Amino acid sequence: MTYKIIVQKFGGTSVEDARAMARAIKIVLGHGVSARTRPLVVLSACAGVTNDLIRLSELSIKGDLRPAQTTIDRLEAKHARIARELLGESDVFDTVHRSLHELWESLRLLARGVHQLGELTARNRDQFQSAGERASSLIFQAGLAGAIKDKSIPVLLLDAKEFFVTTNDFTAARPLVPETTRQMKKIARLLTDGAIGVTQGFIGATAEGETTTIGRGGSDFSAAIMGVALASHAKVPEIQIWTDVAGILTCDPRLVRGARSIEHISFQDASELAYFGAKVLHPETIWPAVEKGIPVRVLSSKEPKKPGTTITAKVRNSHPITGIALLRDVTVVRLGSSSIVPDVTLQQAIWDALGETGSVPVAVSFSVGSALYAFRDASPVLALRAAVEGRTMIEVESGHSLVTLVGPGLREHAGIAARIFRSLGRANCEMISYGGSDTSISFLVSSESAGRVVQKIHREFF
Ligand code: ASP
Ligand code: MG
Fold first, then answer.
1. Domain range holding 362?
2. Which range scores top for mean pLDDT: 197-201, 283-287, 424-428, 441-445?
3. How distant, in Å, are the alpha carbons of 12, 44, 144 from that of 301?
């Protein structure tokens, strides 16, 4: 029997305490282990722990080392409690407890070393930052091995540092896919033969074996890359991302009570919804898997029976609108000039200033003698003022929100735009952008009317 491999990634809130871990373990046994499949479980640190570790790394260069030590003590106590609650007083608990203690001892040593040198390198940061995933995976593996009924199935704790190969850009390392693929061959073999794997997201190592991390929130990316690497050696029918919402929704449920999860979404629609305000995951992190043809499912560990959302490269969609996103309180910059000819050198100055601040407008619109830009926040305003000073009038407005509808219908069905604008009723809208991408349309409304507008449009299309 050759098993297929399902990658199951659990985010921080899905393993935040013993209860959450027990729930995640049930999900592994119910949605990962089957007569034909074995899971590779990819874990985040328990919620909040990575933040604590980053704070800890900074505390360790402070004059007084005690706050750093207290932080480690607190982290040690927290994980010991989770392990005890999950595993009960047992030999297994004692073993896990000892391994955890060694991990925290190594951090104590590291904190003292960094303190003495008075310097915190990016390399050191990664040694601190990687501890959260190492701790959560130690506990989880033991919990899973204890919970599984068929004790003949091995539950392996796989050290990501031994197979997830990255560049040496510490704290922002890039995975090296060919090397990782080569390293994962053995793991693929073990899993297709029937074992379960438990490993860490977010962390890896250089080819020389130095610990790295791949950037905050990186474990989705880890799961995608591991899925891709495994797919070179085995069948990988899907990657499951277990989080605290039941997939990608048609709209923010705090705005629209009827919001429901989208069962199937194309990568492009997911990206556009995320870009324009929907906050479930950063779709670009899962692109390598989608590109390789591995469907990625986003599921809720609190409501595991819900189907969640499956993201694939292309979707045959009967519904014209996939979802609605809202970016609240954008900053609108209005530039006017007395000339009726658009001033190209002025535009040049504006884009140079934006390039320096790294800001990209979420919408732009031009007309004779005036230009409008909408930004997520006010951060580029100072630079823009400086860039146009003395050359043109500049006005900065707040109180606007950007509504974006995403869906294939915008390309294919006539009359969709008319339905949208009809459902706006009396609400004023401006800066309509349509056509930059043929599957999204966005426009500005007053923040005060935004909620109502979104509800109306949602009612019209869902
Ligand atoms: N634990 C890491 C973080 O909080 C990675 C992740 O959760 O994806 O950034
Ligand atoms: Mg996290």
1. 323-461
2. 197-201
3. 11, 14, 16
